[in-house]
Write a structure and sequence with these properties.
heterodimer; A: 315 residues; mainly alpha; MetI-like fold; B: MetI-like fold
């Protein structure tokens, strides 16, 4: 187990190092750097001024040098400065973390609470009208772009209540505060719930055919006990893996949903920073995303081994 | 008795020997897959014959006709610049199909080449390639596509490349896993004993046997590619104006005018959803036909 953990952590670090190099180089391929943009927008033409600003931002150094400055800063907790706001990148990123974390966790909770029970119902009632209905709805959920779903939800809200549940720092009532998180969370979690439903269904179908389930039925166990106590416990194992993998998709969904609902979280900040060529913010946010994805996959593997005695890590 | 037996045989498709009969059998057995294929064929035909089935230029602005409701002159209404939404959606199918088919084809081809080489050669090369795949898979598709698209600049070709790169690991992993298991098969050993070269074995014997899972994966990736192109364009980093990209149509003025002109939001989003829905239906059926182990 210790050997497995050491190897796994080593691989994680290697992956993160690789990502840091790829992202850093990719961002330097972008046509036109921050100095060009500053110059264009301010209408400045003095080349000496341009050189001075480039030197101030460290953009006159070679790419390997710039990379080393960034990585050594990262290891010391110094993420650099935003080119746009000129504030420390850490001060720009930290306040946005709770906003996105709240949205992401609510979305996952919604996805699991909706996806697992409907997956079980669909499997238990295989090939019934309710099964077909749920399968078509879940497939539709996988087919709709989250930003469109978000816009449609906003339109529905506007038509029904005359107000829009777009982000505000100080919601007037508790209901407003709940809606401001719940509506975008449901929008972004709908896709994940559809995937979880489909997987729970196929895992349940697989398990329901097993001998031990038949034995439980033969011994006279009720349908509820067989389905939830015997079958679902084992069917949930592959679903847990998918919930881990789904994090990456969820982050993609957050990017567009935060944009639609005007939520000042990390995901929308990433898009804005990419548009502004704000390298320090983009590279740090991409690293944070990669770190979260890699950590969640690691935790899911550990959880899988803890829940399934047949899985032995490091074997 | 004999009559019942032959009816049973007919239902099971045992007499479906001609191509047409087999096709009919597939339609009967997988009605949802057939519906998915039908949706996709309609979109492909609309994209090919866009000139014939639209009357108005999708790029031509017409200020006096801006924000018209859906009706006689403009079936799906007009946008803030007076452009016909119906024409833009029909021509938009070209962009959506070009990007999704292009990205899936490039991603799959590179994935096949990398997966085949990695699985067949093994050793340090395999280890190195797998670490690169880990790196590409540790970033969400949209994040990697966003950064790549920003790095390359907005254009149709660059959008295809930006979506193709994050797709490589999935097909590379499927092909590698298949290659590893096939490498141990008796017929491969027989080919080696006969003195067949390694590359010939990989291309002639291993590759054809990995086609089924690849088709299943590629259909699933087609749907993701359509959604990613729409998201990139929605965020302003995909196919640039004035091309009628469905995602871009939703970003420009749609959010601003959604209370007064909901047709700006409804039709482009419905087109994206319908096309992805078609690929998902077809993908599910293909998975059942080609890869019965994964049947849900």
């Amino acid at each position: 187990m210790t050997a497995y953990l050491v190897r796994r952590v080593g691989l994680m670090l290697l992956t993160l190092l690789g990502i840091s190099i790829i992202i850093f180089v990719l961002l330097r391929l972008v046509p036109g750097n921050m100095v060009d943009i500053l110059f264009d927008s301010a209408g400045m033409v003095d080349p000496a001024e341009k050189t001075r600003i480039a030197a101030e931002l460290g953009l006159d150094k070679s790419i390997p040098e710039q990379y080393l400055v960034w990585i050594s800063g990262l290891l010391h907790g110094d993420l650099g400065f935003s080119y746009v706001s000129e504030k420390s990148a850490l001060r720009e990123i930290l306040p946005r973390i709770p906003v996105t974390a709240r949205l992401a966790l609510s979305a996952i909770a919604f996805a699991v609470l909706l996806g697992v029970p409907f997956g079980v119902i669909s499997a238990v009632r295989q090939n019934s009208a309710i099964d077909y209905g749920l399968r078509v709805i879940s497939l539709a959920g996988l087919s709709m772009p989250s930003f469109w779903l978000g816009l449609m939800v906003l339109m529905g809200f506007a038509a029904l209540t005359g107000t829009l549940p777009v982000y505000t720092e100080a919601p007037k009532t508790t209901l407003d505060a709940v809606l401001l998180v719940a509506v975008p969370a449901m929008t972004v979690g709908f896709r994940s719930s559809a995937l979880i439903m489909r997987l729970t269904r196929s895992a349940m179908l697989e398990v329901l055919r097993q001998d031990y389930v038949r034995t439980a039925r033969a011994k006279g166990a009720g349908a509820g006990r067989v389905n939830f106590h015997h079958a679902l416990r084992n069917a949930l194992l592959p679903v847990i893996t998918v919930i881990g993998l789904e994090t990456a998709f969820l982050i993609g969904g957050l990017i567009v949903t935060e944009t639609v609902f005007n939520i000042p979280g990390l995901a929308r900040f990433l898009v804005e920073s990419i548009r502004n060529r704000d390298y320090p913010i983009v590279q740090n946010l991409v690293m944070l995303t990669a770190f979260i994805v890699v950590m969640i996959n690691f935790l899911v593997d550990l959880l899988y081994a803890a829940l399934d005695p047949r899985v032995r890590l490091g074997a | 008795m004999a009559e019942t037996y032959s009816r049973e045989l007919h239902r099971a498709g045992a007499d479906a020997t001609s191509r047409l009969a087999r096709f009919r059998l597939l339609l009967r057995r997988y009605p949802l897959g057939a519906a998915g294929a039908f949706i996709l064929v309609v979109f492909v035909l609309a994209a090919i014959f866009a000139d014939a089935i639209t009357l108005l230029d999708p790029l031509k602005t017409n200020a006096p006709e801006k924000l018209l409701r859906p009706g006689g002159g403009h079936w799906f209404g007009s946008d803030v610049m007076g452009r016909d939404i119906y024409s833009r959606i029909i021509y938009g199918a070209r962009i959506s199909l070009a990007v999704s088919l292009g990205a899936t084809a490039i991603g799959s081809l590179l994935g096949v080449a990398i997966g085949l080489a990695s699985g067949y050669l093994g050793g340090n090369f395999d280890l190195f390639v797998q670490r690169i795949m880990d790196i590409l898979q540790a970033l969400p598709l949209l994040v990697l596509a966003l950064v790549t698209s920003a790095a390359l600049g907005p254009s149709l070709q660059n959008t295809i490349i930006a979506i193709a790169i994050p797709m490589i690991p999935a097909s590379a992993r499927v092909i590698r896993a298949n290659t590893l298991s096939l490498r141990e098969a008796a017929y491969i050993e027989a080919a080696q004993i006969q003195g067949m070269s390694e590359w010939r074995i990989a291309l002639r014997h291993i590759l054809p046997n990995t086609v089924a899972p690849l088709i299943v994966l590629a259909t699933a990736q087609l749907g993701s590619a359509i959604l990613t192109e729409a998201s990139l364009s929605f965020l302003g980093l995909g196919v640039p104006e004035p091309a009628p990209s469905w995602g871009r149509m939703l970003s420009d003025s749609a959010a601003e005018y959604m209370r007064t002109a909901p047709w700006l939001v409804i039709f482009p989003g419905a087109a994206i959803s319908l096309m992805v829905f078609g690929t998902n239906l077809l993908g599910d059926a293909l998975r059942d036909i080609l890869d019965p182990r994964q049947r849900g």
